[in-house]
Design goal:
heterodimer; A: alpha+beta; Rieske Iron-sulfur Protein; Alpha-Beta Plaits; 6-stranded antiparallel sheet; 4-stranded antiparallel sheet; 2 helices; B: alpha+beta; N-terminal domain of TfIIb; Naphthalene 1,2-dioxygenase Alpha Subunit, Chain A, domain 1; 2 domains; 5 helices; Cholesterol_7-desaturase (chain A); 2 iron, 2 sulfur cluster binding (chain A); 2Fe-2S (chain A)
């Protein structure tokens, strides 16, 4: 991952895991966020809390170009402004009702969110293509240890296996969890993908084992 | 006095539900009340007996299908529900639902109707019938209870005894900090109200056991179906309650934004604050 400073990019999800008209929870340094894609395909990220009664917006639903809270249906635009309060259909919500939003970029199949105002674009992937993501119940150090490699400043770890070169993109979550995006070179065939999946699952078990042992000490 | 003791002070003398009367056993059942382990059992005569971990025998009431107890010395008798003695009603022990949230949040959710179309979709509400009409809210000083009246809402399937959509009228009562009594249009008996209660046992400030109980006019529906209907509703509520941030109920303004539809919740929060009923509340915005 990039250094934990304001304005840094976090690779929160793969594009393929966020179809149009859906919302998912994601995590950046400042906390959990609601990541959603409108029916027309535009991506937005907001604080994961409806200001009305504190319900997580990532449990909500997307309709058209807005995200709605599942509790009372309050809906918000990509800008974060409240558009509608269903209990009062005739009321135009005041400007002051809004959720905090974050800058989002989608590039090469990865969705990046910035905690503040980023000074640059997210890093490129050098021809690697996103394959899948998995959550590892271990911190970055345990994953590096298991991989026998050190992550670069952008959270990239390169490993070699029977499946060829695999690149991991690490994203810290809450607790000692890490979201790991698995990238492969170009368009990998089915056998390569299966082999890569097994390699990464094995890496996950090793990392979680080391994390547990470290915690027990 | 510790912070914990300060928080508990005003609420420690209240009555709380701690189990079902119908499930009392001589061997006892271990549970908790406001962080303290307690045991609920029945004695040789079949009477409910509640004891603290140090063996202290706690006050007990057997009412409304439940055993009630208190860690303190209750100054007031358990609140009345006159309908509990009315002939012709069926009394339904719904059972228990454990919810990982503040007991106060659970009560507040029970007082809310605006969530029906979104959380209890096609049962207690449905779009586009989302509007909350004006209703009346007051704190009745003579009985020291929060009351909301003339609450009306369109419901596709208001109860097991309702056939098709009807506009249901509600009245809400909060007679104790973690209990609410709902009076609701009774489809087979238009001159009477169905009674649905929410009795909440505070296990800790952010964990509770919810014991819904009903006193209905319904001779048709099987007991199983009545229980399942209510459990479905409460499980839908739980998916909300366990995902609100913060887990405790914010009593200070600024943390959340109420509207006119939330007048009952506003009165409830004001009443809690007035009485220092802050066990399960968050007082400083974080």
């Amino acid at each position: 991952m990039l250094s934990d400073t304001t304005g840094s990019w976090t690779p929160v999800a793969l594009s393929q895991d966020l179809p149009a008209g859906t919302v998912i929870p994601a995590y950046i340094v400042s906390g959990s966020i609601a990541l959603w894609r409108s029916d027309s395909g535009r991506i937005a990220a907001s604080a994961d809390r409806c200001p009305h009664r504190g319900m997580r917006l990532s449990h909500g639903f997307v309709r058209g170009e807005a995200i709605s809270c599942i509790y009372h249906g309050w809906s918000y635009a990509q800008s974060g402004h409240c558009l509608r309060i269903p209990a009062h259909p005739g009321l135009k919500p005041p400007e002051t009702i809004r959720v905090a939003t974050y800058v989002v970029e989608e590039a090469d199949g990865v969705i990046w969110v910035a905690a503040g105002a980023p000074g640059s674009m997210p890093p490129g992937l050098d021809g690697f293509v996103p394959f899948r993501s998995l959550t590892v119940h271990a911190a970055r150090a345990a994953i590096e240890d298991a991989a026998g490699a050190t992550a670069g400043p952008e959270g990239l770890v390169d490993i070699t296996s029977g499946a060829g070169n695999i690149r991991l993109l690490l994203s810290a979550q809450d607790g000692d969890r890490t979201l790991v995006h698995v990238l492969l070179v170009g368009e990998a065939d089915a056998a390569t993908r299966i082999s890569a999946s097994r390699t990464v699952e094995s890496l996950r078990r090793t990392a979680e084992d080391r994390q547990e042992k470290a915690a027990a000490q | 006095m510790t912070d914990q003791a300060m928080t508990m002070q005003a609420m420690i003398d209240e009555w709380y539900p701690v189990g079902l009367l119908s499930q009392l056993q001589p061997g006892g059942r271990k549970t908790a009340l406001m962080g303290a382990p307690i045991e609920v059992a029945c004695d040789a005569e079949g009477h409910a007996r509640v004891t603290a971990a140090d063996g202290r025998v706690l006050p007990v009431r057997a009412r409304y299908g439940h055993v009630w107890s208190s860690l303190g010395a209750p100054q007031k008798e358990l609140f009345p529900i006159p309908e509990a003695d009315q002939p012709g009603r069926r009394f339904v022990d719904v059972g228990v639902v454990r919810v990982r949230c503040s007991p106060l949040r659970t009560v507040e959710n029970f007082l809310d109707i605006a969530h029906f179309p979104f959380v209890h979709t096609d049962i207690l509400g449905a779009e586009p019938h989302t509007e909350v009409q004006n209703y009346k809210v007051e704190i009745r000083e003579d009985v020291d209870e929060v009351w909301a009246t003339q609450v009306k809402f369109y419901q596709p399937q208001a109860s097991k005894s309702a056939s098709g959509g009807i506009t249901t009228e509600y009245m809400y009562r909060v007679p104790a900090p973690t209990c609410s009594v709902l009076y609701k249009t009774c489809p087979p008996r238009p001159d009477e109200w169905d009674v649905i209660t929410l009795f909440v046992q505070p296990l800790s400030e952010d964990l509770c056991d919810v014991w819904p109980w009903m006193a209905l006019f319904d001779d048709e529906t099987s007991m199983t179906d009545l229980i399942h209907f209510q459990q479905t509703i409460f499980l839908q509520d739980r998916s909300i309650l366990e995902n609100q941030i913060p887990r405790r109920l914010p009593l200070d303004p600024g943390m959340e934004i109420p509207t006119r539809a939330d007048l009952t919740s506003i009165a409830y929060r004001r009443w809690l604050k007035r009485h220092d009923y802050t066990y399960g509340a968050q007082l400083v915005a974080q």
